[in-house]
Amino acid sequence: MPQDGEFLYPIKTRRAFRLLGLVVAMAVALGSSSAEAATSILLIGNSFTGGLKPKLQSLIRSSGRDVTIVARAASSWTLADHAASPSTRKKIDAKAWDYVVLQEQSLGLFHERYPSARVLDAEIGKKGSQTVFFMTWRDAGAPMVSYDSLHGQPGEDVGYIPIAFELGAPVAPVGWAFRETAIEAPEVDLWAGDGHHASDRGRYVAALTLFATIFDESPVGLWGPRTMTAEEILHDQLLVEEVTLTNPSEWNIQP
After folding, report:
1. What residue ranges of the chain have pLDDT lower than 70?
2. How far is CA 236 from CA 172, 202, 243, in A?
């Protein structure tokens, strides 16, 4: 596991070499056929999930895919709240979603919270849908070591990785992308003014990470917000590519 201050993903040194790839990828994405059935995604979480739907939708559509995204989010809710909610279960049972994304409250996932994840995953599995865990982030300025308890290892009882491996689900390492940004580019603020929720750019990084996890595909060359420069967009796309896809098995991402 990376140590404090150590960044394993050399973004700046590769940026120039990816510019041509960016142009080519954009051309491929724009020329792709959207005739195949739309991908369906259900997002389950709380305010951390807020604002993700339009960004994720734009990213997926820019890759040449059609997509339907529905969000079921309630402020401060945990997965236990969702597991006990008839409204959440109704959303899960509404159709055979391709992917159902589970985002736990900001403290993260640990053994006391694993039972609720199991209940939701079982409900998701009844329709043949795939669970995806959304790893959250720590508050702005939190010690880097505090991210270790978001990660965890297979067979342990703290973090997203143990329960994801148990249930055969991938983890979208959004929190790890926040961590690496804080190390590699501390001038980039992914947090909102409260230091807890994501800024608009932080939500873009979260959407990029979900895209890379769900499709096991690089987001480089895809859509970026008009509020960001081309360099900022490419920086975030490359960082997410490195964090998520350099070693996808770390996150239980299957080809």
Report:
1. 1-35
2. 15, 10, 11
